[in-house]
């Protein structure tokens, strides 16, 4: 059966000392409390090694926010999947809308990134979601289906079973404007049907589909109560331990 997961996406925030302090705080909050979901923090590349040294990964998973579409070589400034793996991290966010929007990531580069992440034992948290204009035109399902089909449906069922999906309507990211729980459920159910059509009902039922976009302690419980919403990918609210833990506790 699929897992419930709350994953933080710190984006380009915190210095290394600040990030280590935040990771320690989350780790301590989890030390004497058993969450009803898996908890993961995805941090900047510079933070992976030091954060790895201060958390108990049995309770708090660690991930990167991206990885390169090549294994190694003359790609100045890039960080590869084997490099991420060598830090001790086990997750990687791929296809975040900010990467698609500002760094030109396409389904083609994402196919390569997904393949390398899986080859090096990293669990991709793969982001999909429409922009406001697409929702206003009513084409959000087509957009999301294309993103999934073009970047992921070359995988076999065993490989696909290792992917976590995060539905993040771009109009809800960092805007304070959350999708309603009904809007999220409608899309998550559509995504699950899309997976079922390609890989069958079992693979679809086993896939964790997270919601992302202005999720906070005050709205997490309503979103997570929906049958096809299996947790959240949390940006802004993951930068404060109390807010992040408030979202984790929405599963209690
Ligand atoms: C994100 O960027 O993945 C995200 C969900 O951001 P926020 O929670 O800040 O909207």
Give your account of this protein's structure.
The relative contact order is 0.15. The protein is 46% helix and 14% strand. The model has no long low-confidence stretch (mean pLDDT 98). With 252 residues, the chain is an alpha/beta fold. It has an 8-stranded parallel barrel, surrounded by 6 helices. The longest helix is centred in the C-terminal third of the chain and has 19 residues, at 181-199. It has helices at residues 16-31, 45-52, 81-87, 97-103, 107-119, 132-137, 140-152, 157-160, 181-199, 201-206, 217-224, 241-248, and strands spanning 5-9, 38-42, 61-64, 91-94, 123-128, 164-167, 209-212, 231-234. Helix 1 crosses helix 2, helix 1 runs parallel beside helix 12 (241-248) and helix 5 (107-119) crosses helix 7 (140-152). The chain binds phosphoenolpyruvate (PEP).
- Along the chain, the helix and strand elements come as EHEHEHEHHEHHHEHHEHEH
Structural class: alpha/beta
Could you estimate the helical fraction of the residues in percent?
Answer: 40-55%
Shape designation: globular
Largest beta-sheet characterization: 8 strands, parallel, barrel
> Widest sheet: strand order?
1-2-3-4-5-6-7-8
- List segments where confidence is low: pLDDT < 50 over at least 5 consecutive residues: none
| Strand-residue proportion | 5-15%
The small-molecule ligands in this entry are: phosphoenolpyruvate
Radius of gyration: 17 Å
Span of the ends, CA to CA:
18 Å
What would you call the quaternary organization?
single chain
Q: Total helix count?
A: 12
Tell me the number of strands.
8
Tell me, rounded to a whole number, the average pLDDT: 98
């Amino acid at each position: 059966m699929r897992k419930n997961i709350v994953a933080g996406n710190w984006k380009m925030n915190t210095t290394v000392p600040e990030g280590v302090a935040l990771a320690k705080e989350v780790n301590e909050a989890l030390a004497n409390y058993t969450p009803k979901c898996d908890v993961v923090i995805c941090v900047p590349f510079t933070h992976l090694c030091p954060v790895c040294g201060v958390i108990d990964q049995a309770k708090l998973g660690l991930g990167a926010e991206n990885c390169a579409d090549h294994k190694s070589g003359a790609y100045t400034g890039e960080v590869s999947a084997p490099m991420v793996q060598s830090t001790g991290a086990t997750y990687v966010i791929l296809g975040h809308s900010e990467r698609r929007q500002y760094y030109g990531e396409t389904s083609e580069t994402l196919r390569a990134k997904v393949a390398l992440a899986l080859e090096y034992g990293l669990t991709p948290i793969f982001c999909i979601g429409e922009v406001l204009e697409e929702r206003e035109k009513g084409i959000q399902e087509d957009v999301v289906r294309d993103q999934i089909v073009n970047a992921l449906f070359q995988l076999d069922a065993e490989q696909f079973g290792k992917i976590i999906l995060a539905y993040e309507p771009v109009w809800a990211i960092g805007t304070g404007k959350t999708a309603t729980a009904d809007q999220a459920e409608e899309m998550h159910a559509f995504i699950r049907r899309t997976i079922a059509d390609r890989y069958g009902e079992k693979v679809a039922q086993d896939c964790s589909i997270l919601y992302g976009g202005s999720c906070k302690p005050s709205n997490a419980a309503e979103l997570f109560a929906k049958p096809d919403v299996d947790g959240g990918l949390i940006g802004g609210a993951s930068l404060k331990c109390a807010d992040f833990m408030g979202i984790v506790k929405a599963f209690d």
